[in-house]
Amino acid sequence: MAGRGHHAYISGQVLREYLSVATRPLERNGLGRADAMTNVRAFRARTRLLDESLKVADQLFALLDAIDCAGRQVHDANIVSTMLAHGITTLVTLKRPISRASMST
Description:
The protein is mostly helical. The protein is built from four helices and two strands, in the order βααβαα.
């Protein structure tokens, strides 16, 4: 991607969510802390970390005022808010699609 003038970005939230799952014990489908940290360092080497600023928080609050979103969906709304605050227009994910195509204000 980067070779063609594109950059991959990541938010701290995505890294934290990954670590919360990946650092589970092996018997609970985790990778273990050492492997999880190796992966996070690899993600960081290949991406640009977006700041989680006051602008992101304000964008999240505006988004939550504008759409019907609650519970776990707030995590997805925060990722969208981070994107909007930084002018990012494309989301690449292996996760289930974010169900609210209208997550913009």
